[in-house]
Amino acid sequence: MEKQLNAILDSLETLKQGQDRFETKLNRFETKLSQLDERQDRFETTLEQMDEKLDHFALETRRHFKHIENILDEHKETFNVAADKIKTTHIDMEYLSGKAGQHDTRLHSLERQLQSL
Questions:
Q1: Alpha-carbon distance values, 89 to 77, 79, 94, 97, 99 (Å)
Q2: 89 Rama class: left (phi>0) / alpha (psi -120 to 50) / beta
Q3: Cα 33 from Cα 40, distance rounded (Å)
Q4: Which residues form a coiled coil (predicted)?
């Protein structure tokens, strides 16, 4: 009977050692899990910061793009005004060139008339 009791006590001791090892591993697991939670919290914080920065970047990019569009519209209007002035000047030059040709012809005619006198 003593042998059986010693065997039971040995079995209980072995079971206790196994339970101690299990508790140690469970404590390490809980520590790792806690560390993982902390890392996840930091990751979420970093992700939120990046999201906020991305929102600011998108807003600034839209503002900058709108500013560039406005400048391009102003330049386009300036080019349109310049093109209209060039077109008007070209028409005026053609008109004056025609008039100069008429005047040259008239002067030449008058010169011949004066020479024939």
A1: 18, 15, 9, 12, 15
A2: alpha
A3: 10
A4: 19-53
Q: What are the tokens at 7?
A: 């065997």
Rounded (to 5) percent helix, strand, coil in the chain: 100, 0, 0
Per-residue pLDDT reduced to its tens digit, 50-89:
999 999 999 999 999 999 999 999 999 999 999 999 999 9
Distance CA 8, CA 15 (A): 10
- The residue type found at 1 is M
Structure-token match 């005026």, residue found:
92
How far apart CA 39 and CA 70 sit, in angstroms, is 46
User: What are the Cα distances from residue 116, in Å, to 59, 102, 104?
Assistant: 85, 21, 18
Distance CA 99, CA 44 (A): 81
